[in-house]
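Researcher: I'm preparing a figure for a lab meeting and need a structural model of a single chain. I don't have an experimental structure, so a prediction will have to do for now. The sequence is pasted below. Please return the structure as tokens so I can convert it later.
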Amino acid sequence: MRARLNRSFVGLLGLALALPLAQASAQTGFREISAPPPPAPTGAPAAPSSATPAKPRPIAEPAANREGAELAGRYAILREGGKDVGCLLTLESGARGPQGSMKAQLAPACRDQGIVIFDPIGWRVERGQLILIARKGHSTKLERHQDGAWWRDTEDGGKPLGIRKI
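Model: Understood. Here is the structure written out token by token.
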């Protein structure tokens, strides 16, 4: 008998709690189901429906972006005489880097201190040159050679630096 009374009491308590909640939601104006938007007045353009999102308009891709997508990939870093120093550089086309560039990442196993200190984190193509951007913000320009590798101009006294796609 006591169990039956407890169940009845719980049922009444639940009903007593549900009623004030229903009244409170009616007073605040919150509804579980939202009504569709009212129709647009005649002569006015209709508001876009949230059920069918508008398609973005295609835009022409700049030539530098197309070339940049072709250049993305993994590269071996070269020094004087085309010697591979065992460092890998990844040029990414989708991720964004600093100064409006695309992301570059040096493999952590690189032992060439000059490259490690430079630490390229971004790249872009400008006037046919590949520009690598360092973590500290400075950059170096590489020019494409006939063998397909990219080399820095060493006339300014720097060490030879090149990259070749793997």
